[in-house]
Amino acid sequence: MDWGTELWDQCDIIDKHTQSGLDLVEKYVKFVKERTEIEQNYAKQLRNLTKKYSPKRGSKEEQECRFSNHQAFLDILNEMNDYTGQRELIAENMMINICIELTKYLQELKQERKMHLSEAKKAQQSLESTYKQLDNSKKRFEREWREAEKAAQCAEKTDQDLNATKADVEKAKQQAHMRTHIAEECKNDYASQLQKYNKEQNQFYFTDMPLVFNRLQDMDERRIKKLAHGYILFADTERHVMPIIGKCLEGMTRTGTNVNERNDSVVLIEQHKSGFERPGDVEFEDYSQGINRASSDSSLGTPKGPLELLGKNKNKTFRLFNKKSKVGFTTL
Amino acid sequence: MDWGTELWDQCDIIDKHTQSGLDLVEKYVKFVKERTEIEQNYAKQLRNLTKKYSPKRGSKEEQECRFSNHQAFLDILNEMNDYTGQRELIAENMMINICIELTKYLQELKQERKMHLSEAKKAQQSLESTYKQLDNSKKRFEREWREAEKAAQCAEKTDQDLNATKADVEKAKQQAHMRTHIAEECKNDYASQLQKYNKEQNQFYFTDMPLVFNRLQDMDERRIKKLAHGYILFADTERHVMPIIGKCLEGMTRTGTNVNERNDSVVLIEQHKSGFERPGDVEFEDYSQGINRASSDSSLGTPKGPLELLGKNKNKTFRLFNKKSKVGFTTL
């Protein structure tokens, strides 16, 4: 079943159908292009998101990475970055392997289709031109034959005319003979034109146009094959990176699993343990046994009350928990 | 290793550390919220894309779905819709299972932390108050003992004063005795206050504050556990829908694989084949054998030239390929 045989009289349909096929490719390319723009935009937003939440170098957040629950967040951001890279790859590969590839192919097909249709048109114009010649030739034959008949009638009439001279009769007969001869020549010409036309018409309907239509069919089938490949690439581009995306997601899950809350508590201890003993009992200062009275006015060696344990007092001299001063309650 | 024992003098650090932990949860919730917004936006754009390219009901595009390469594009759009639904599900589940859940938990933790810190503050204030009492009591004892000594010296001086009367001596001795008695009472009070303070201080450093710090540690570890679960959910939400997304992508690939270009060519034939034979040879009209001359002027039964095969002529009477008129070249 081919178009050349089955659709020999459906050139208009084939014209429209192949155009509609190219339109579909064009539409699909546009669709994929818009999809890649969405992917790029999505990836860009994800990049901005991870960037926004990534700690600045030497910041407080970076220092807090000693704690696994802080570090895990940074690990997730890192995995997100890899993840985003894969989304960018999807956009890029769709653009290169589908949009650019199909656009290039589309241009070739447009050229090819134009060529086939122009060949069909040329063949048709040639047949039309031959037909016009045939028509002219036929009309001339008809006209000349009428003239010849008229001349024959005229000769017959002259022959039966009692008043006609022999010369008149001879002249009319010659005229009729000449006319018949011309008409015969026109008939031969008409016959020859008809033969030429029929040969060309046969060539047109049984060889030339079927060839053009079959080439258009072949072109359309190649277009469909290429488009179908483009369809497959649309999903496969993403399927191709899915294992890596899966690995990124696994990495994020692992990062969550690796968080160790007990360990984070210990890290805080290791970082901030002063090593001092908790204050023992305040001793009794027995003035009645004559201790140095001056010392009772001095702040040294005298309990000054429980120190600012809750860190609300911003007076530095009272903040004994300041990591750098390393002064504990043992001064009491 | 627990904070209550090891970090007994690091209340300020514990305060800041637990606050920083809550800040991290808050930051993570914000991060996930922004991620869901990106996902929702992404899904919305994908929805708009498929909607834009889906054919209107009864449109030309819909009719062209008889061709597998057109139908495949619609199948891809349908799969894209399912795919988009999964992206929406990711956004929705992240919002519900991470953002809302952690925000709720965060409120509880904030309350709990406030409560623990307020308990610590209360205990400290109570100890400070007891200390002030102790200090006052000690100062009174010191002051009264000094007065008693002064009175004793005065009594001794009076006793050795040759001009002093016996009554003077007796009065001074009584005064000294009274002062000593008062001082002894103050000493007892100081001793009792000291005992009370030491008991409370011990309770403070060895029981109350460690309890508060350990509760804060426990709270922080619960926070970390919950946050780690939130980290795991971040990736698992997406991993959960990956098989379905994979199925959508498989569906798209299959749709591309199912495109059959040969079949599409046949569908066009079945749809548009006129069934007419291609025109045979144009017959010779021999006027010399006396055919009906009138017929040569009539358009019927006379070749009118090759018909508009390329569909460029918009004159309807010449468009024999119009599907509805079903008139072929056989009229020639």
Automatic annotation (TrEMBL), chains A, B:
Keywords: Coiled coil, Lipid-binding. Residues 1-264 form the F-BAR domain. The keyword Coiled coil applies. One of its GO terms (cellular component) is cytoskeleton. SMART domains: FCH. Residues 106-203 form a coiled coil. It holds the Pfam family FCH. GO terms for molecular function: lipid binding. PANTHER family: CDC42-INTERACTING PROTEIN 4 (PTHR15735:SF17), FCH AND DOUBLE SH3 DOMAINS PROTEIN (PTHR15735). This is Cdc42-interacting protein 4 homolog. It comes from Sinocyclocheilus grahami (Dianchi golden-line fish). The gene is trip10a.
